[in-house]
Design a protein that fits this description.
This protein has two domains: about 1-140, Ribonuclease Inhibitor (Leucine-rich repeat, LRR (right-handed beta-alpha superhelix), Alpha-Beta Horseshoe), CATH 3.80.10.10; about 190-309, Ribonuclease Inhibitor (Leucine-rich repeat, LRR (right-handed beta-alpha superhelix), Alpha-Beta Horseshoe), CATH 3.80.10. Helices cover about 5% and strands about 20% of the residues. The protein contains two helices and 22 strands. By secondary structure, the chain is mainly beta. The strands form five sheets. Strands 1-3-5-7-9-11-13-15-16-18-20-22 form a twelve-stranded parallel sheet, with no helix packed on it. α2 links the parallel β15 (about 205) and β16 (about 235). It catalyses: L-threonyl-[protein] + ATP = O-phospho-L-threonyl-[protein] + ADP + H(+); L-seryl-[protein] + ATP = O-phospho-L-seryl-[protein] + ADP + H(+). It is found in: Cell membrane.
Length: about 300
């Protein structure tokens, strides 16, 4: 798509957004179970409290819609909700509203980019039906609470872009349903626990922009368990990693995207690298590699992005 086409499509989208205030006539839709008002322009308007009377709703998406003010507690009356997304608005709340913790049937909860602060609230610990939890792009500044590791149904966990500190407990291995874990852009440190390697359903590990200060070979060896069979995305960039790459890299045969840039990894690139035939994106830039590129690099026929700068 050309820049001109992109600009035209974006302008069309921008002009098509709804604005103003929501009309209470929505309450006449007695059987409505799905309501998506995302990516509109309700700027300078709070979420209307009457939405809390739409008891048939099972899915409510109010994300990136320009809502302001306080999130109305009446939304806590929507006991049938399975999906709630209020990401990317401009609320006055600095804490996650406590009424959310009473929505015990929720399967998907998205609270990204709302500038919530403080520790990850303990009220979330009873929401064990969750499969999708997105708390990214807030200002949470605690460690990752131990109770979160007991969410055995959780498939997608995004805690990226906060100020989380401390280490990751080996109890993360209890997240046996996990498909994607994103802990990037935090202040986490220590070592990545070996129990990550036992998460057999995991396809994405995104832990960049932290302070692991660990040998890369140790991490790859710990991930060489059953997780290596399905892992498609591994992002360890900007993580203060060091040491040499060993042949463990070759066991991740389903990797599609691999990011190791901006660490202190040194030595040659192992020949087993050529086994990663599914790779489309590879970034090893800003490290301290030596030697020559493996001859079998040419076997990676699916590569579309490659950086060794």
């Amino acid at each position: 798509m050309s820049q001109e086409q992109y600009d035209a499509e974006f302008e069309a989208y921008w002009r098509s957004r709804f604005g103003g205030k929501l009309n209470p006539s929505l309450l006449d839709l007695k059987h409505l179970n799905y309501l998506d008002l995302s990516f509109n322009n309700f700027s300078a308007s709070p979420i209307p409290s009457f939405l809390g009377s739409m008891k048939s709703l099972t899915s409510l998406n109010l994300s990136n819609a320009g809502f302001v003010g306080v999130i109305p507690h009446q939304l806590g009356n929507l006991s049938n909700l399975l999906y709630l997304d209020i990401s990317g608005n401009q609320f006055e709340n600095t804490l996650i509203p406590s009424w959310i913790f009473g929505l015990r049937n929720l399967v998907s909860l998205y609270l990204s980019e709302n500038y919530f602060q403080g520790p990850i609230p303990v009220g979330l610990q009873n929401m064990t039906s969750l499969r999708h939890l997105d708390l990214s792009r807030n200002n949470f500044n605690s460690s990752i609470p131990n109770w979160l590791y007991s969410f055995s149904r959780l498939e997608f966990l995004n805690l990226g872009s906060n100020n989380l500190q401390g280490t990751i407990s080996s109890a993360i291995g209890n997240l046996t349903s996990a498909i994607s874990i994103d802990l990037s852009y935090n202040q986490l440190g220590g070592k990545l626990p070996r129990s990550l390697g036992n998460l057999c359903n995991l396809r994405e590990i995104i832990v960049s922009y932290n302070k692991w200060s660990q040998e890369i070979s140790e991490i790859l060896e710990s991930l060489s368990g059953c997780v290596s069979n399905r892992l498609e995305i591994l992002d360890l960039s900007y993580s203060q990693l060091h040491g040499h790459l060993m042949d463990e890299l070759g066991v991740f045969k389903n990797l599609v995207k691999l990011y190791f840039q901006s660490n202190s990894i040194s030595g040659p690139i192992p020949v087993s690298f050529g086994n990663l035939s599914s790779l489309t994106n590879l970034d090893f830039s800003n490290n301290q590699f030596s030697g020559t590129l493996p001859q079998n690099l040419g076997q990676l026929k699916n590569l579309v992005e490659l950086s060794f700068s």
